[in-house]
Amino acid sequence: MNNTRNQPSARKFWSWFMPVGRQAGSWAFALNRITAIGLTFYLFLHLGVLSLLAQGPGAYDDFLVLTENPFIKLGELAVVAAAILHGLNGIRIILTSFGVGVTRQKQLFYGFMLISVLVILIFTARMY
Amino acid sequence: MSKPHVIIIGAGFTGVATAHDLALRGCDVTVVERGDLCHGTSGRTHGLLHSGGRYAVKDKESAVECIDENMILRRIVPQVIEPNGGLFIAIEEGDLDYAEQFIESCEECHIPLEELKPQEALKLEPNINPKVLTAFLIPDGTFDPLRLALAFAGTAKHNGARFQTYHEVQGFLMDGQGNVSGIKVLKRAANKTEELRADVVVNATGAWAGEITNMAGLDAPVKPTPGIMVAYDQRFVQRAINRLNTPADGDIVLPQRRMVVVGTTSFDAENVDYIPVTDDQIKLMLERGSELIPGIRNAKPRGIYMAARPLIGGGSGRSIARTFKCYDHKETHNIDGLVTITGGKATTLRAMAEKTADVVCAKLGITAACVTKETPLLSYRQYYASPN
Amino acid sequence: MTEQWNITLRIYRQKENEAPHFDNFKMEVNPDEYVLDAVERAWAFHDRTICFRHACHHSTCGACGMRVNGVEKLTCITLIRDVTKNGATLKVEPLRNFPVVSDLAVDMGPFYRKMEAVGARPVLPVTEAEIENPPAKWDTDDAQYIRLSDCIECGLCISACPVMATTPEYLGPAPLAAAQDNGIKRKPELLSIVDCEDGVWRCHSVFECTAVCPSFVDPARRIMDLRKQVVGARVRKLFGKA
């Protein structure tokens, strides 16, 4: 019985992010990981931007002009969305890890997603 | 002094129990099975650990075998048994007529029984038919088919037996004098054939016994007799519930995990490899099952299946004796090296194995006695204890 | 008249030293039969080289777990009607995260060894295996009714768990659920087995295990409860020693 079929593989890794045919919990898992990667990327970006301050007020002000760019604004919205989704889903994970609401984890997910969508919509309205 | 090599064809109940017995008596055992454990009849058995009550009136030999083996299995392999006993219940006047001979026969077969008044029976089992007229408590039980086999196989493996699953026998190796000296086997996982020599080959293929013996040019007297089982999705009772009457279709309902399983029927079939389920038989199980447990009408079927019993040829249907027979083909057809064991019930697997091992050991000149009655089996997970 | 559907059964095939591939079998099936019946028919009437595992055909042995159209199912209780349509394809593959023996049959060895390591109980008192909404109340004061436990060791949860896919050493949902069922209080030796990086802390709350379990084990809830047990045991140890 020498076969390598069920070893970790790239396809399996990517299947984490495409939970087709899977249930709500898998989608929450995938969403959490995607937002986590996004937020981590943003964190480094943000630190990079803040380091501009060390180069004096001029450098930072030049940067602020960029932020009026609609694509950058969209990016900022994406960051806010990711933070809300990741944060609320994270609260769900904390709750279930303590045994609270484990049997209702699907409803928790849907509920938090609803709140996320509402908050994101409010943010969008305020931004534009 | 090397151990004699015995090949057992078939990893159903008979095969694994025989492997266990022979391993303990000092044989080198290889079990070959074209599928995995319990792919045939053994997997789909109802799962009733018989008290023998069902056979006491018409088939006393079978009944005594059952009660004796029932007690042994409770001792040696409790890990796979729901040991909660059983009831024989009378629903109609016609059932009551059976009571007297039932009591006499059970006593004759030393099957412990206790008669209960209807209210007592309903107190023990609130979901049985409220019209129950009388009931008898007997030591039935339920077992897990695959895990029963795994327990025997795992213990045998621990004692040196080898199990080659997905190995399909294609023919026999013959010595110059027309005797069986081994098998030709196809490794199904690799599409390769292989030859395996043995001092004795045991044909433990149950309903397929005839297909195997045909490869040596002889017939085996086995009559595959299928029956239906329907599993419903609620555990209505804790005990086996039997109809108090002559054995008939759909007169046993067994609890198992969160289900009850209603069985069975009995009919002839040609093709043993696949037996389709028919609607009329499903309806019959629903009818008969709900006579014993009315709640079944509101339950959902969870699994429906057919399996072919390996009855010893002769009469037809229910009249065939359910004992087992071991054939040494040197005596039947002057072909040495091949032994066929067939017939039997799941409950008597250890006894079938003892008889078969006796025959095999006599042929091999082994004088060790059978110790399986007193040997507790290891955890059924022992079968997987060492990586392949 | 029983309904007849025409489906294409698409089965994963793998033999030693051959490239894995899929075989298609056009079959007429009764949609009220089970997926396992279709696989068995393909073996009986179309291709005798198909290897697959089955035994009880009524969800008590756990042998027939497979992926049906990508989702883990116990094929003996999965109606064809529920997973495909007339004229459509029914894809059947072996479970993930198990070594494949051949075609649809996988090696349950590593999984069974983990179940044994946590001392999973095969039978237990009915009072310790509560059924929600039981169909009756039994007097269990005198009679200690015993039944086979819920977990049938089918491995669907192991296959569905994405953590299992990347960490084969992870104990996995079913073994952790069995450990919870035993309880740290009753079996303190379990503490060191489950309180480790590949034990109860490796779970990432995907909940797919509970979603696919055909046997009411609810491993996700049990893993979270086991965490509470572990933390409680460690805290008690801390104050016990102090």
Short description:
The complex is a heterotrimer of chains A (128), B (388) and C (242). By secondary structure, chain B is an alpha+beta fold.
Folded structure, characterized:
The complex is a heterotrimer of chains A (128), B (388) and C (242). Chain A is mainly α and 128 residues long. Chain A has five helices and no strands. Chain A has helices at 10-15, 24-50, 57-66, 70-97, 105-127. The two termini of chain B are 27 Å apart. In chain B, the strands form four sheets. Chain B has an eight-stranded mixed β-sheet. Chain B has two domains: 5-42 and 146-221 and 322-384, FAD/NAD(P)-binding domain; 48-143 and 223-312, D-Amino Acid Oxidase, Chain A, domain 2 (2-Layer Sandwich), CATH 3.30.9.10. Chain B is α+β, with helices and mostly antiparallel strands and 388 residues long. Chain B has helices at residues 13-24, 60-76, 93-96, 99-108, 118-124, 145-158, 209-214, 279-292, 329-333, 349-364; strands spanning 5-9, 28-33, 48-49, 81-82, 86-90, 114-116, 134-138, 141-143, 162-165, 167-174, 180-187, 192-197, 200-203, 222-232, 240-243, 252-256, 259-263, 301-312, 324-328, 338-343. The radius of gyration of chain B is 21 Å and the shape is elongated. In chain B, helix 1 runs parallel beside helix 6 (145-158) and helix 1 (13-24) crosses helix 10 (349-364). The mean pLDDT of chain B is 94. By secondary structure, chain C is α+β, with helices and mostly antiparallel strands. Chain C has two domains: 5-106, Beta-grasp domain (Ubiquitin-like (UB roll)), CATH 3.10.20.30; 109-119 and 151-241, Fumarate Reductase Iron-sulfur Protein, Chain B, domain 2 (Orthogonal Bundle). Chain C has helices spanning 35-46, 80-83, 109-117, 156-160, 162-166, 173-182, 190-194, 208-212, 219-241, and strands at residues 5-13, 21-29, 65-68, 71-74, 89-93, 100-102, 105-106, 123-125, 146-148. In chain C, strands 2-1-5-3-4 form a five-stranded mixed β-sheet. A two-stranded antiparallel ribbon of chain C has the order 6-7. Chain C has a two-stranded antiparallel ribbon with strand order 8-9. In chain C, a hairpin with a 7-residue loop joins strand 1 and strand 2 (21-29). In chain C, helix 3 (109-117) runs parallel beside helix 6. The relative contact order of chain C is 0.12. The chains are: A mainly alpha (128), B alpha+beta (388), C alpha+beta (242).
